[in-house]
Structure formats: structure tokens, C-alpha cells
Amino acid sequence: MSSVIAPVEQMVCAVYVSSAHKPLDDLELLELLRVARQNNERSGITGMLLYRDGNFLQVLEGPSSAVDELIDKIKRDTRHQGVILMSRRGVQERQFADWQMAFRNMSKSHMAESGYSPFLEPTFEDEEETGEASQLVFRLLRRFKDVMR
Q: How far is CA 144 from CA 14, 32, 43, 55, 141, in A?
């Protein structure tokens, strides 16, 4: 009897930005996160979501078909507009393995919270040279800061 081994699906990491059709309040964000975390756990997706004054930056990682399906769903979601896929690439390991969806509200009303980083402030400059991967993340976050409303 020969056994057929199914190919392992490629793991990908995708990053997109979008704007909310209307700014979301804290309760709406919590509900969005609750549902996203449940769906992501079921689909094997992990990642991170940043929200700032009506704009999203999200990192999604998981099986390529699950990530692609979720991005297509987000593009059709009427709560989003201007979805821009910034990056999609194969990865060997997850960066957010422990998070169905890490979240940070970067809106000005949340800046006073403990642990707030001034990174997204217009005057912040990183002076430290870091590795290529870190620089990519900083460039991506800067683009989110500069391009979104």
C-alpha cells in the first residue's frame, strides 16, 4: 500500500493598509477584534493590527490560501476602503505565533496610555541603524504614518 503525502501549504506573511469607512469607537474595535481572533484561530492565521484615527495597518501570517481568502474578504468588507496590499511573501516561521491578532490603538486619544511609543509622531526620528528586516518594518510603519489620513 502506498501512501500519498499531501504537500504542506506555503506559509505567507501579508501586510496591508486601509481606511475605515467611518472611524471606529472602542466598542466597535473590541467587537472587530473578538470576531477576528475567533476566525483567525479557526483559519490558522496570526498577526498584528494597528489602528490610528480611522486607518489600519495589519500583518497577517498563515497558510497562503487562508491569508489570501482573508485579504479578499477584507477588500469586500464595506467597513474598509482603499485597501492596499503592501507586501505578500513566503516565510519560514511566524513572527506573531502567539497572537491570533495582536492589537494596538495608536489614535491620539490613546497616546497617554502607559507603554505608548512616540514612533508614529511626526517629530520622531529613529537614530539607530538596525538590520534589514527591522528597517523594512520601520519604513512600512513610516509609510502608514505619512500616507494615511
A: 15, 20, 27, 8, 5
